[in-house]
Specification:
By secondary structure, chain A is mostly helical. Chain A has one domain. Chain A has ten helices and two strands, in the order αααααααβαβαα. A two-stranded antiparallel ribbon of chain A has the order 1-2. The two termini of chain A are 29 Å apart. By secondary structure, chain B is an alpha+beta fold. Chain B contains three helices and five strands, in the order αβββββαα. Chain B starts with 12 loop residues before the first helix and ends in a 14-residue tail after the last helix. Chains A and B meet through helix 4 and helix 7 of A and helix 1 of B.
């Protein structure tokens, strides 16, 4: 059983990565990846919602009919996001000041509805939790990669203002990669995001192809030896 | 999802309708409860936020009152001043109005920018802060004090200093810096702040009149 959970995680994190393989949720992706810090904030907030929504959808999946499943999922996700929004505004106000903007955007993230529809609606809650976690962290990973590339090339910094998001102890991870850099506007704007995404997707394909070749050689060697 | 194992009653139209109704009701109830549970806390946080931003634009040494309690609402109807009433927070020391703070909206690159500015009795800017903006991250958002000190550059300036022609970004012949790759945002903010100063100048008498606490019925404005 543990193996299958590992497989679910690997599938959702890497093989079917929300951004790099499925190309879902491109709108929030382009909007928040101009800096790595924003990307991280959006990724973490989305992961939290995705995990909870997946578990909730999976636990009610046996009562839901095909005809009304989409409205039911949307009601669940939208209410969840609104609850998170209100609770954070009231009790985690500092963090809300930073993440507030992203939280409302999560409702329209098609990746969440996508996971509810294609995984949580057919699988038990625990497996859905793993899938939600994998997809969410995969999304965070993708956002962070794009954000890092765009921030370094666009502004010469990495994780600038991260301490605003994560707290003062994280001042240390704010880096200036290229000092006295004048900035490269294109990278901070959406075209830079699409360019980066294109190269990263190509990179993932290359990695996957190399991995496949390696497995093939190993299988052939095993056959020859056997 | 497999139709074969679905019991008969689930295939009826009514089941789906009732199901959707129940889900909506549960969600609605949860949201209502959460709203009433958090409304007071959220309102309190917003008051704290406003106090905190007022503290940033109005230095503590110019007033001895609670700005949120000494407010003056002006109804503006001249077209170039914007519509609707504006709330002015008055900073007072020993019964004299030493400065006023108010919110105004400038037009940026991607929509309105909400600013809070404070002007001293001598017409000089005490401080300006951005309350809300949606400018391009990494470019236009440098108007926010969290990202850069640019907004502090307005402190001490007034309508006469630098004068009409100086109230522009450098690119347009003024004295205020623009950002690399973002001119429209600072241009909008400079224009907004200038309009704010003009608004204060136009209503000087009402805004800085010492409030006569003994006869509140005869307020100088009205």
């Amino acid at each position: 059983m543990a193996d299958s959970y590992r497989q679910i995680f690997k599938d959702s994190f890497w093989t079917n990565n929300v951004i790099l393989a499925q190309s879902l949720a491109l709108c929030p992706t382009m909007a928040v990846t101009s800096t790595a810090t924003n990307a991280l904030g959006m990724g973490l907030a989305t992961t939290a919602v995705l995990v909870v929504s997946n578990v909730m959808v999976a636990s009610v999946r046996n009562f839901i009919t095909n005809e009304v499943r989409i409205p039911v999922f949307i009601v669940i996700i939208a209410s969840l996001v609104t609850l998170v929004d209100m609770t954070m505004d009231a009790y985690l106000h500092q963090l809300y000041g930073v993440l507030g903007l992203f939280i409302a955007l999560i409702v329209v993230n098609c990746a969440i509805l996508g996971r509810a529809e294609s995984f949580a609606a057919r699988n038990p809650p625990l497996a859905s939790l793993v899938d939600g976690l994998g997809s969410g962290l995969g999304f965070t990973f993708g956002l962070l990669l794009i954000g890092a590339v765009r921030e370094i090339l666009g502004a010469g910094t990495l994780l600038a203002n991260a301490s605003v998001l994560l707290g003062p102890p994280f001042k240390a991870i704010e880096m200036t990669i290229i000092p006295h850099y004048n900035g490269f506007l294109l990278m901070a704007l959406p075209p830079g995001g699409f360019l980066t995404l294109g190269f990263l997707m190509a990179g993932k394909r290359l990695l996957d192809a190399r991995q496949e070749k390696r497995t093939e050689t190993r299988e052939l060697a095993a056959l020859a030896a056997g | 999802m497999e139709t074969a194992t679905v019991p008969g009653f689930r295939q009826r139209f009514g089941y789906s309708a009732v199901l959707l109704g129940i889900v909506a009701m549960v969600a609605g109830t949860a949201l209502t409860v959460a709203h009433f549970g958090t409304a007071d806390a959220i309102a309190a946080r917003q008051t704290e936020d406003r106090q905190a931003s007022l503290r940033e634009v109005v230095p503590a040494n110019v007033h001895d009152n609670d700005l949120l309690k000494d407010t003056l609402i002006l109804k503006l109807n001249r077209p170039n001043e914007g519509m609707g009433p504006i709330t002015f927070y008055r900073a007072m020391a020993k019964g004299q109005v030493t400065g006023i703070a108010f919110e105004l909206t400038a037009i940026g690159y991607s929509g309105p920018i909400r600013l809070l500015m404070a002007v001293a009795a001598d017409g000089k800017i005490l401080g300006v802060r951005v309350l809300q903006q949606s400018e391009t991250p990494g470019l236009g958002d440098k108007i926010d004090i969290k990202k850069s000190n640019w907004i502090l550059g307005f402190n001490g300036h007034s309508l006469k200093n630098p004068g009409e022609r100086g109230w522009h970004v450098k690119k347009d012949g003024g004295i205020f810096d623009q950002f690399t790759g973002a001119t429209i945002t600072p241009r909008g903010v400079v224009k907004g702040i200038h309009a704010g100063l003009e608004l204060v100048a136009a209503h000087r008498a009402e805004l800085f009149a010492a409030p006569s606490k003994t006869s509140p019925a005869e307020a100088p404005h009205g």
